[in-house]
Write a structure and sequence with these properties.
With 293 residues, the chain is α/β, with parallel strands linked by helices. Helices cover 44% and strands 22% of the residues. It has 2 domains: 138 residues, 3-Layer(aba) Sandwich (D-Maltodextrin-Binding Protein, domain 2), CATH 3.40.190.10; 99 residues, Periplasmic binding protein-like II (D-Maltodextrin-Binding Protein, domain 2, 3-Layer(aba) Sandwich), CATH 3.40.190. It is built from 11 helices and 9 strands. α3 crosses α10 and α7 packs parallel to α8.
Length: 293
């Protein structure tokens, strides 16, 4: 029998070898366990949405008939889009910022300082080619409607509307801080300022029109169609002002620019909803004429 002292080196070598093998096995186990985690981190936005079964959608507050008090055209369209992806729709309601840049920043690509948002998708985004070309953080696409300015008028007070001259004597309601208000304040050297009535929203101006407090309202045609389009006491015309008459804009969707797969899926979904008449039917349900973008 060999002296115990001679066995120690061999035993030590085997012990070290055993520890090395154990360490390698542990490392392999860590790698195997980390692989699914790395794979999960590589999932696209669309895959994450489908995994959790929910599409979060940014919707403007107090914007009837598109989104107001939990209902509206954009709400139903968002639900239909989510259905096309095989998930449910979860709304993220927000108040409009001073400009579209602010809305996109807080609801699409960055979120608010208090951690509200961003959403997976934002509805009712102006799809202007020049604006789209200069926005790097978001992708604007899937235009589904064309909006424009119009004038809703009381037929009794204003049977016809061929020019702006009647508004030297008759009151015209308009939403404050809107392009319509700015144009009317300066039109024809400011001739209509005295009869221009400023309201917090077009909805409030329409309420004044219905009550007889103003003879007409200048606003977005969709809001006017929803407000008075079915009432025979009123008529809706394009504004007799060339600048306002020319102003028309497409309305579409927005997601983070990097979410390419989600963009393609939503673009396909919206195309299908346009083609099968879903968009038109939803808008007709709120009294709007669907104007193709």
């Amino acid at each position: 029998m060999l002296p115990c002292s001679l066995c120690r080196p061999a035993s030590s070598r085997f012990h070290k070898a055993g520890r090395s093998l154990a360490a390698m096995a542990s490392l392999a186990l860590v790698v195997l366990l980390a692989a699914p985690l790395a794979h999960a981190q590589d999932k696209t936005a669309l895959q994450k949405i489908q995994q959790r079964g929910v599409l979060s959608v940014a919707l403007y507050k107090d914007f009837a008939p598109f989104s107001d008090n939990g209902k509206g055209i954009d709400v139903e369209l968002a639900q239909a889009l989510a259905g096309k992806l095989g998930v449910k729709m979860s709304p993220l309601w927000f108040s409009a910022s001073d400009d579209v840049d602010g809305d996109l920043r807080k609801m699409v690509w960055k979120g608010t300082p208090i951690g509200y948002g961003p959403a997976d998708l934002m509805m009712h985004v102006p799809a202007d080619p020049q604006y789209m070309a200069k926005v790097d953080q978001v992708k604007i696409f899937g235009a589904y409607h064309r909006e424009r300015f119009a004038v809703g008028r009381q037929l009794e007070a204003l049977p016809t509307l061929e020019n702006l001259e009647p508004f030297e004597k008759l009151s015209l309601g308009v939403e404050g801080e809107s392009m319509g208000a700015l144009v009317m304040l300066s039109a024809d050297g400011g001739r209509y300022r005295e009869k221009l009535k400023i309201f917090k929203s077009t909805e409030e101006a329409i309420a004044a029109l219905k009550s007889g407090a103003v003879a007409a309202v200048l606003g977005q045609q969709g809001e006017l169609e929803n407000g008075v389009g079915a009432d025979s006491r009123f008529a809706i015309d394009l504004p007799p002002n060339q600048l306002l008459k020319m102003q028309q804009w497409r309305i579409g969707l927005a997601v983070k620019a990097e979410n390419i797969e989600l963009t393609k899926a939503l673009e396909t979904a919206m195309s299908e909803l346009m083609a099968d008449g879903t968009v038109t039917r939803i808008m007709q349900g709120y009294g709007l004429k669907h104007r193709l973008p």
